[in-house]
């Protein structure tokens, strides 16, 4: 099992979700509105948010835990759909998941996702 976290531009969310919904076996998605900055900070962004002395840009974070067999398909769908070719397109992080416990049923491991 792998956890996939993707930071994307907010206007790309609908297109990314549409592509992800085409993937058979996709268990579910968590979406959060976030803010932050990358290497170039927020100086060139039109939608930057100033808080005190710091400037941030709004982004969307998508989180999924998926079976190993669909990891590449999920990552490719996010990367291709979220891509604009400009700085600030975001990042995708893939990490190993040791265990999952479904609270309602106490299922564990891959059966829980």
List descriptors.
single chain; about 110 residues; alpha+beta; five-stranded antiparallel sheet; 2 helices; about 20% helix
Distance between the termini: 9 Å
Number of strands: 5
Give the class from helix and strand content and strand pairing.
alpha+beta
**Multimerization status:** single chain
The shape, in one word, is globular
What is the alpha-carbon Rg in Å? 16 Å
- The overall average pLDDT, rounded, is 92
Strand content: 25-35%
Roughly what percent helix? 10-25%
Query: For the report, how would you describe the main beta sheet?
Result: 5 strands, antiparallel
The H-and-E topology, N to C, reads as: EHEEEHE
Secondary structure layout:
Blueprint: E1 2-8, H1 13-20, E2 30-36, E3 49-51, E4 54-66, H2 71-82, E5 91-96
Antiparallel strand pairs: 1-4, 1-5, 2-4, 3-4
How would you describe this protein?
The structure is a single chain. The protein has two helices and five strands; from the N terminus they run βαβββαβ. The chain has 113 residues and is α+β, with helices and mostly antiparallel strands. Strands 1, 2, 3, 4 and 5 form a five-stranded antiparallel β-sheet that branches. Helix 1 (13-20) packs antiparallel against helix 2. The longest helix has 12 residues, at 71-82. It is globular. The mean pLDDT is 92.
């Amino acid at each position: 099992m792998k956890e996939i976290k993707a930071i994307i531009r907010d206007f790309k969310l609908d297109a990314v979700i549409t592509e992800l919904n085409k993937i058979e076996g996709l268990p579910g998605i968590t979406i959060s509105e976030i803010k932050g900055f990358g290497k170039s900070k927020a100086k060139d962004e039109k939608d930057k948010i100033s808080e005190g002395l710091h400037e941030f840009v709004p982004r969307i974070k998508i989180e999924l835990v998926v079976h190993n067999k669909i990891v590449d398909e999920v990552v490719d769908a996010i990367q291709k759909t979220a891509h604009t070719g400009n700085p600030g397109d975001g990042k995708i992080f893939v990490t190993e998941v040791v265990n999952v416990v479904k609270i309602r049923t106490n299922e564990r491991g891959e059966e829980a996702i």
